[in-house]
Design brief:
Layout lengths: L1 H22 L9 H11 L2 E7 L7 E7 L1 E3 L2 E6 L4 H8 L2 E7 L22 E10 L2 H14 L21 E13 L5 E4 L1 H4 L18 E3 L10
Antiparallel strand pairs: 1-2, 1-5, 3-4, 4-7, 5-6, 6-7, 7-8, 8-9
C-alpha cells in the first residue's frame, strides 16, 4: 500500500509540475498569428469536435472533447461508442473549435466582454482525424496524461484496463487548415507550414517568422496578406 501511495504521489507531482510548465508558457502577441494559434492549442483543456453527422444526415454535429497537443497536433482519447467517432468512421474530416472563453479570459466575460468579442480569441482547426500510430503513441499518452489524469481510469493508456468495453484509443487531428480571430479586423487564415513551424519558449518562431497567408474581412474578402 505504501508503494502504491508513493507512486500515486509521484504521478500527481508530475502532473502538477507539467501543468505549471504549460501554464507559464508566454502568451504570444496577437500579431503573431501562427504562434498564437499554437499557444491556444497548447493551453486548451477541451474544445468542440465537429463532424459530418451520420445520426442526422446532412447536418454538422458538435461535441465537447478533451484535448492535449503534441507539437501543435491536437490529440485525444476517444471511444468508438461516441457519436462523433461513429461519424468519423464514415468521413474522417473534422474540425476542432477552441475559445479562450473556456479559460475565463477577461475579454470573454460580461459585462465588458463576451465570447463573440473579437479579443476573446477563437480558433478553428480543420483536418483529418486518425488513430495515433506506434511512432507517436508515447508522446500522445504523455501529453494527455499530464492534462487529463482521469483518463488512466478509462483504459486510455492501458488496453488491458478497459472501462466496461468502451475500447478507448488515442487519436489525433492532422491539421490542414487554421482559422483564427484574436483581435479586431477579421480572421487570419494560417498556413499549416507556418502553424507547425519551430518556436522557442517565448512563442517566437525560430526561423522565418510567419504570420498568416490570407485574411478574411468582415465581408468575407480573401487575399489580403498579413
Amino acid at each position: 500500500q505504501n508503494v502504491a501511495s508513493r507512486r500515486m504521489a509521484v504521478k500527481i507531482l508530475v502532473v502538477v509540475v507539467l501543468g505549471v510548465v504549460v501554464a507559464t508558457v508566454a502568451q504570444p502577441p496577437v500579431a503573431q498569428k501562427a504562434s498564437y494559434a499554437r499557444w491556444m492549442v497548447s493551453s486548451a483543456e477541451w474544445g468542440t469536435l465537429s463532424t459530418l453527422s451520420t445520426l442526422w444526415e446532412g447536418f454538422p454535429f458538435g461535441n465537447p472533447v478533451s484535448v492535449a497537443d503534441v507539437d501543435g497536433a491536437p490529440v485525444f482519447c476517444v471511444s468508438p461508442l461516441d457519436q462523433s467517432i461513429q461519424d468519423l468512421a464514415s468521413s474522417p474530416k473534422a474540425s476542432l473549435t477552441l475559445s479562450r472563453a473556456a479559460a475565463g479570459d477577461a475579454a470573454c466575460r460580461p459585462p465588458s466582454g463576451d465570447p463573440e468579442n473579437p479579443p476573446c480569441s477563437r480558433l478553428v482547426l480543420a483536418g483529418t482525424f486518425a488513430n495515433v500510430t506506434d511512432d507517436g503513441w508515447d508522446a500522445a499518452k504523455d501529453a494527455l496524461e499530464a492534462k487529463h489524469p482521469a483518463m488512466e481510469g478509462w483504459g486510455c493508456f492501458d488496453p488491458d484496463n478497459d472501462l466496461d468495453g468502451h475500447d478507448f484509443f488515442l487519436a489525433k487531428l492532422d491539421v490542414e487548415h487554421a482559422w483564427l480571430i484574436d483581435i479586431y479586423g477579421g480572421a487570419a487564415i494560417i498556413d499549416p507550414d507556418d502553424y507547425f513551424g519551430d518556436y522557442d519558449s517565448s512563442g517566437e518562431k525560430e526561423a522565418a517568422p510567419l504570420q498568416a497567408t490570407g485574411f478574411v474581412g468582415d465581408e468575407g474578402r480573401q487575399g489580403k496578406k498579413v
